[in-house]
User: Which sequence fits this backbone?
């Protein structure tokens, strides 16, 4: 469903050239469960942002369901970002003035759901990540791991079929982390496609396919 | 050197009462190496913020070198925060408009060092965490793990004798994480006092003393 062909992401800082991604190719199939590992700075988040249509490559081709992303209009791209893909950011990116419940509701505002249904979905997503008693808290009134779990709940609220999670358990104790991973397993069994960036071996081995990045290149894909 | 006696931190949200810390007592001695673990939301960051003089308890007593923190004036508190304690935040808290080098220099601006010496110290701190080639990058031009390492370098720039690190390896691959922990070991051998919040067992067992929090209380201290 996703074809990434010879993609590079190159930054220029002064006369310094940084190749965040260097000629990367990967094909992602429906119901894949992929873990992505690699050293700090090796390009994992950059690759995730491109897959999630949140960033554009400097070179190379990205096809989503066999259509070129570069030829899509704004509403097609918005549809992919808001309804087909759920993204858990490495730095959470919650809106500071909204409560947990409101933050989780944000992606649902574009959906055809009515207000009551939206609230129920958002409450259910927060219940799944164990935060029913934190629905009225704003991000500054939450712990690091609680913010991470709100970010996870928000990514799942729209029931997307592709879930991209960038280090989703990095701020969680092992028990909360295992609960989240068990839930990811259920999503996978339900037919969804999961790509998880992690630096924890215990998380990576739960995936069916393992990818490793090094210096902006894919060095392992098995 | 630090005495925390019956400390509570209580928040009121509407008619909801949240006890982030509930009657916590702990004594910290010179050259201690303490790891703090506990579930997400159990009060670890809250305790660290109080120890680091970045937050005030709702009840209880905090003595630093046998003096009451509540009786200190602004310049005494600033001296503790900027020169005696180095704090690595769970969410990094880098200044977005400054480069890595400038971010690391910030705590040195209050010290008696001249400009050349400040630059050398900041460059050395970045070299230790493996970021010599990222000195001119701003936080938005860095990966998550690189930002975490800049936060670590900044905490160490003033050579504080007390280092408080809130989940310092949460965004690092195992190799970078081990390098940071080896460096923490060296700081400990050099006589410094370290308190590290972590949810990784491999990090916690490197400490000489282990503390565990649950629901705002200390349940283990050995
Ligand atoms: N301003 C606030 N208002 C209300 N509750 C708060 C506020 N700040 C923190 N809390 C609550 O205090 C509790 C402890 O927070 P703390 O950040 O210390 O947890 P933590 O142990 O560091 O968790 P994590 O491992 O997830 O980082 C959490 O349950 C959080 O929701
Ligand atoms: N705007 C930018 N300008 C210059 N370099 C950048 C920019 N954004 C990212 N980089 C560089 O691109 C590289 C890859 O970054 P990326 O965030 O993808 O790494 P990562 O694998 O996710 O790392 P981590 O595990 O630390 O999160 C890094 O070396 C980073 O410094
Ligand atoms: Mg990253
Ligand atoms: Mg915390």
Assistant:
């Amino acid at each position: 469903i996703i074809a990434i062909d010879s993609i590079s992401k190159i930054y220029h800082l002064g006369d310094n050239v940084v190749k965040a991604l260097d000629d990367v190719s990967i094909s992602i199939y429906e119901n894949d469960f992929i873990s992505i590992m690699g050293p700090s700075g090796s390009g994992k988040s950059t690759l995730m942002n491109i897959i999630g249509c949140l960033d554009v490559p400097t070179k190379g081709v990205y096809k989503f369901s066999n259509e070129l992303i570069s030829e899509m209009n704004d509403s097609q791209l918005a549809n992919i970002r808001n309804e087909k893909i759920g993204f858990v950011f490495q730095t959470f990116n919650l809106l500071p003035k909204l409560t947990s419940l409101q933050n989780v509701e944000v992606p649902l505002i574009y959906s055809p759901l009515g207000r009551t249904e939206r609230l129920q979905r958002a409450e259910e997503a927060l219940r799944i990540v164990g935060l029913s008693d934190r629905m009225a808290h704003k991000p500054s009134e939450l712990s690091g791991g609680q913010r991470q779990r709100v970010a996870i709940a928000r990514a799942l609220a729209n029931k997307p079929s592709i879930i991209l999670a960038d280090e989703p358990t990095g701020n969680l104790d092992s028990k909360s982390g295992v609960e989240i991973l068990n839930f990811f397993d259920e999503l996978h069994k339900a037919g969804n496609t999961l790509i998880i960036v992690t630096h924890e071996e215990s998380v990576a081995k739960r995936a069916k396919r393992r990818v490793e990045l090094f210096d902006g290149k894919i060095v392992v894909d098995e």
Notes: Residues A 143-144; B 44-45, 90, 166 surround magnesium ion (ligand 4) (CB under 6 Å).
